[in-house]
Amino acid sequence: DGTIVPCCFDPHRKFNLGNMFEETPFKKIWKNKKYADFRKAIIRNKDSFEMCKDCSGELKPEDLD
After folding, report:
1. Tens of pLDDT along 5-33?
2. What is the pLDDT at residue 54?
3. Judging by DSSP bridges, how do beta strands 18-19 and 3-4 pair with one another?
4. What sign has the CA pseudo-torsion 31, 32, 37, 38?
5. Closest CA to 7 of 45, 64, 37, 49
6. Is the pLDDT of residue 49 over 90?
7. Omega cis (within 30) before 25
8. Which end of the chain, N or C, is less packed with Cβ atoms under 10 Å?
9. CB atoms within 10 A of CB 17
10. InterPro entries, alphabetically (predicted)?
11. What is the pTM of this model?
């Protein structure tokens, strides 16, 4: 349906960050406030998100832009 979520561990689309059919290109979604705020929150405290607690992925400050 075009919904963009932060990762595959969000199958119920709890964190809907945009829609590929409504906003293109993807870069526009990546740079939107909702997605930027989510990335900042993950860097500050990944464990505050249930789906991220056991994730081995790493988001770095340079990934914010």
Report:
1. 988 888 889 999 999 999 888 889 988 99
2. 84
3. antiparallel
4. negative
5. 49
6. no
7. yes
8. N
9. 20
10. 4Fe4S-binding_SPASM_dom, Aldolase_TIM, rSAM_sf
11. 0.74
